Backbone:
């Protein structure tokens, strides 16, 4: 994701003026951009376009952004794509629903184009830096491979969305060490993204559902750790 000319961004919003504004600013920055006026069309375009980042409104006709996000995250080819909500809704329950569905960021309107371009660029830079640190963690019958964002347990491949993978990888890098929710938020989501602490609990629950209960332990009143036993 280091070269903007190779970075694809899909913008999904039911307001045509917002689509035009974002398309203009993103293309000016060198990104390849496609747009959609509703969630159903957005999913359809994403299947063939394979964007690295999707900017997604919540309140849209035909299909809202939260359901659209769920469908996008179910597509194997988009497991590692960034999904950023751009919405006029500032209620906590909307934000929680967005992150529960696998969103990477949640930005409230009105949109400030220059700030948004800077935020997107920072996301891609962090991703590029992480990819340079390619390594593989093997613990008993589990292999966590950062080069391919894959997890295998006893040769069975486990599909984890990007944030769930990063959470598991980070904990597994530090077996036995306890991390608070704030620690995990800072290391996985970064300091420039405001995310509710509950988001960590949701992601931990989803990881456990997929890899089993025996790997990540809860330390009551403190946080979580990768269990060495």
Residues:
């Amino acid at each position: 994701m280091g070269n903007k000319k190779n970075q694809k961004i899909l913008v999904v919003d039911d307001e045509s003026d917002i689509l035009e504004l974002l398309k203009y600013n993103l293309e000016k920055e060198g990104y390849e951009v496609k747009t959609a006026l509703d969630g159903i069309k957005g999913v359809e375009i994403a299947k063939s376009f394979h964007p690295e980042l999707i900017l997604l409104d919540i309140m849209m006709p035909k299909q809202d952004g939260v359901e659209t996000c769920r469908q996008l995250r179910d597509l194997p080819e988009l497991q590692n794509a960034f999904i950023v909500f751009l919405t006029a809704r500032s209620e906590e329950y909307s934000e929680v629903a967005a992150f529960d569905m696998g969103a990477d960021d949640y930005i409230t309107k009105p949109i400030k184009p220059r700030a948004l371009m800077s935020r997107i660029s920072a996301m891609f830079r962090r991703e590029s830096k992480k990819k340079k640190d390619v390594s593989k963690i093997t613990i008993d019958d589990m292999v966590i491979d950062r080069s391919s964002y894959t997890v295998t347990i006893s040769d069975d491949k486990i599909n984890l969305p990007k944030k769930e993978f990063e959470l598991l990888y980070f904990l597994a890098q530090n077996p036995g060490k306890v991390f608070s929710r704030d620690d995990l938020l800072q290391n996985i989501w970064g300091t420039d993204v405001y995310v509710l602490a509950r988001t960590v609990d949701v992601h931990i629950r989803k990881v456990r559902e997929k890899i089993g209960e025996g790997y990540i332990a809860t330390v009551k009143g403190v946080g979580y750790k990768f269990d060495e036993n």
Summary: The domain at 133-226 is CATH 1.10.10.10 (Arc Repressor Mutant, subunit A). The helical segments are 16-28, 39-49, 65-73, 92-100, 113-132, 162-173, 181-189, 198-211.
